[in-house]
């Protein structure tokens, strides 16, 4: 038994799952690992999160945001036990019915699931703010720049330093002008592989929430854009339009301003994904993330058609290489 296994067992021993069986669960892009615990008598389950501090993880934000979401009527996992010093949480198990998995088998349910997920955002954006940092133009621009320093750099062997400086100056201005103002709590990775479908519940409780520990304060359009411009599954154009309309009808926000911010923030997120996924592949040995880059590129190209992004569109078209098969192969190389 490794030291981390011993630490995990010590935490579990203090709970009703001391005698439970263990089975690994799929992880995510982080250094966190998960196991499902099943009680042999009752059949009840729980999830163990293993988040090593020495690998840059910290369970404290997860606990804090989960409690915030639950206190505001949303369905984040209940936390059964915490060992923050060692980096372990024992959590309520919300099940396996990820939106992506449900819709793979029952695509006709897309509208119903996305309506529920949109309603969660309407509900959340009416809640009191949580004291977390802002996802501000400076940080958003820095993360978007990864498309130069990680994505273009790897494919081309270099990136255009002058073009990057021009992009950063112009994009920061666009973000300040088009995507600032009213702030809400944004989860930042709100998409079909982080949402659990729980149809036996009512209202917003039908959507189980995962992977929200990076929550910040940001523009109301951000999480809806993250949901609808999903690189992991294609959301129909009809559903995308319907959900934007649904959100606007429920919140009364200005149609033009919201849709402009939606495209601007979409460009930011997809640029970040290009760089982030390239880095995961080339620096962290996770080449499967390269498979998602063409979808991010497709979303980016559509976002750049918005007039508000005209000041950076030409710069990006010239400086960033398209994800051709040959270029994607370079990202997969060790």
Average of per-residue pLDDT values: 95
- Quickly give the structural class: alpha+beta
Q: What's the total number of strands?
A: 9
Biggest sheet strand line-up: 1-2-3-5-4
Give the number of helices.
Answer: 13
As a percent range, the share of strand residues is 5-15%
Q: Which helices and strands appear, and what pairs or packs with what?
A:
Elements: H1 3-12, E1 21-25, E2 33-38, E3 45-50, H2 60-71, E4 79-83, E5 88-92, H3 99-105, H4 110-124, H5 137-144, H6 146-156, H7 161-178, E6 184-186, E7 195-197, E8 207-209, E9 216-218, H8 221-228, H9 237-251, H10 255-283, H11 293-303, H12 310-319, H13 325-332
3D structure, described in words:
- With 334 residues, this protein is of the alpha+beta class.
- The protein has helices at residues 3-12, 60-71, 99-105, 110-124, 137-144, 146-156, 161-178, 221-228, 237-251, 255-283, 293-303, 310-319, 325-332, and strands at residues 21-25, 33-38, 45-50, 79-83, 88-92, 184-186, 195-197, 207-209, 216-218.
- A hairpin with a 4-residue loop joins strand 4 (79-83) and strand 5.
- The longest helix is centred in the last third of the chain and has 29 residues, at 255-283.
- The two termini are 32 Å apart.
- The relative contact order is 0.12.
- The mean pLDDT is 95.
